[in-house]
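Weekly structure sync, notes
Attendees: PL (lead), two postdocs, one rotation student
Agenda item 3: pending single-chain targets
PL asked that the sequence for the first pending target be pasted directly into the notes so everyone works from the same version. It is reproduced below exactly as submitted, 398 residues in total.
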Amino acid sequence: MKKTLVASALAAVIFVPTASAIEIYKDDKNAVEIGGFIDARVINTQGSTEVVDGASRINFGFTREMTHGWKAYTKLEWGINPFGNTDIVYNSESNFASQSSDFLNNRLGYVGLAHDTYGSITIGKQWGAWYDVVYNTNYGFVWDGNASGTYTYNKADGAVNGTGRGDKTVQYRNAFGDFSFALQAQLKQDEFDVLDTPTPYPGVFGRSASVLASSATIATIEYNYTYGGAATYNVTDKLTLTAGFNLGEFDGSFVDGQSINETDSIYGVGATWGNWDAEGVYAAFNVNKQEFHDTDNLGRMMPEAWGLESLASYKFENGIRTFVSYNILEAGDEYEAAYDGDVFKRQFAVAGVHYVWDSNTVLYLEGRKDFSDFSGANEEAMAKSEDDGIAIGIRYTL
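Predicted structure, written out during the meeting:
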């Protein structure tokens, strides 16, 4: 039982989100597998209809049996952009692809050791411990769950603060009975300038537009170590509860001498009923509270916000899966005070139908209806990437 639970925990860290892999080599010591998928979709949103990439990727996994019950393993994954770039930015993956002309881009890369009793430790670019709390609602193919605090800095990959595919992270995992946990430290030394030109960080700490326009560089910020943790409890074979947190800290100063010291924090809980890939009912939600953790659609830091994601689906015996989801991320009064009364309330619903032809081939249709509120002087610019949309596509998994 113990070995099964630890193996499940290791499978989660290696293969989140759910994906299959093909074993291409195995002997009494080493195993090699290849995985990933190609996803092509036609999307209509933001006044355009285009063929776009659906987060296509390829990965390689290597496992080696060591002495005394230990295993060594590594995972390398690259995003693939086989269909060309697009100006449409509608989720975390399209945001990255629209900024890169490369056919390949780095998604994951880490190495680890694992033991059935002592757990596992991994080092590198990997899914953050926070993702254990909120992955349960991130199963729609087209529109990411952009309210969970995972894909921070306006739909990036969560690398900066370690809640998504965190850079330079060290992670420990273990399981005891129906309880499992993850602890994480992101060991990095980052420094960046806040500029008066559009960057991911303009106005990050509530400074006024007049200050931003006064100098080419208006502040220098250090954003170094972050820390996180998550716990999962399998109450029954259908009900799972999750909870976790992630913390970081900004330090620096503005050119006028004012110092900056803010804590980036997020904490939350989640619950899941059923199995997304199994027949029958699946339902999940997560809720979070955050401070100085994410940015609005103009790249301005939100002093505080709360988020909710929910998903419900039913998979029939014939392979048809229907689902609906509802997401909201709302900034508080401090945000409005910092940005001259601007409102940030990202709110949308998604409905979809998937035809799971077999476990590795899915045809899908998904549509999004936006209910966001971005009232204020920047409403048009804020709303551009939050439009209604509809997409049809095919996902071919290796």
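Discussion points:
- Residues 2-397 form a domain with the Porin fold (CATH 2.40.160.10).
- Residues 217 and 343 are 27 Å apart (CA to CA).
Action: rotation student to compare against the earlier draft before next sync.
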